[in-house]
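Much of our argument rests on the idea that a fold can be written as discrete symbols. The amino acid sequence and the backbone structure tokens for this protein are reproduced below:

___
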Amino acid sequence: MVNRLISQLAHVEVITPKPAESLRFYRDVLGLEVSGQAGQSVYLRGWGEFFYHSLQLTEGRAPAIAHSAWRTEGPDELKDVVARLERAGAGIGWRDAEVGHGPAYRYRSPGGHVQEVFWEIERYKPPPGLEPIFPNRPQKYVPRGVAARRIDHVTYNTDDPLRDAHWYRDVLGYRFMELIRFDHPPNVVLGTFVSTTPMSHNLGLIRDAVDRSGKLSGVPGRANHVAFWLDQREDVLRALQVYRENGIEAEFGPGRHGMGENFFLYVREPGGMRVELFSDGYLLYAPDLIPFEWRLSQGANDFYSPSRFPPEAFLFDAFPPVEAAKAAAPAAQAAAH
């Protein structure tokens, strides 16, 4: 069993080389609300989210995930998490308060991914005309495009998903939920799911191979996708129509993952980032279950068609680490925001 130290995934920073086109996608097609803008970043959130933002969209030279941010269970848990990270030798250091939240402590995971933890948060305040009539909603429901409700998870590529899952469990108190092994060779782990909530996962870890032979990239810190939640699988099917009407073709799906039992659909937004829509699935409250283990042939990735393998780009075309993607943008491009 583990101690609950981290409450939830709070936001993800996505780098885009096409800021205007990506903003139109997240705002008009995915249906996120714009909370504000600062510097080279635009801040967005789903209509059902209570915090200032869940997506920070930043201009840069190539698509990437610059960092993911996690809110702790409280101020004491933040101190505990920072101490654990420093003992593990993963700490990068403290950062001053930024848009949407207070001081944050950044660290680098074993797979090379930059992440941060914090406690103080800015809650969303709806502008005039978006005030909710229901007290348990952050704003009025005004559907636009896909109308994503909230961020769901982030998935990274790593040279060793099993090592990383154990690290998140032992250092940060994540729950190790599920894992996939190849059928041949049977001992090679393709992916793992860990979670800070009863959801099947809010952090996915995929083996970072560069081809079907299993050759590893040798580049730490690469990313795979960011995912947003829709309430029903019918919403995911409707989203496919919205995408088609906007000239966006599906990369993979719709379908159902065996791991998590979630209904899924993947596309690439104009800047190149892979975006998943997610719905359905199980909630697991028991704190002491061992991870569920899948073979790829059992439908771990596609329950409906176990023999259907994702497009090669889905597993092997990972996004570069942020150091290779993030850069100051020219003023002319910044004006396109």
Observations:
- The mean pLDDT is 90.
- DSSP finds six helices and 17 strands in the chain.
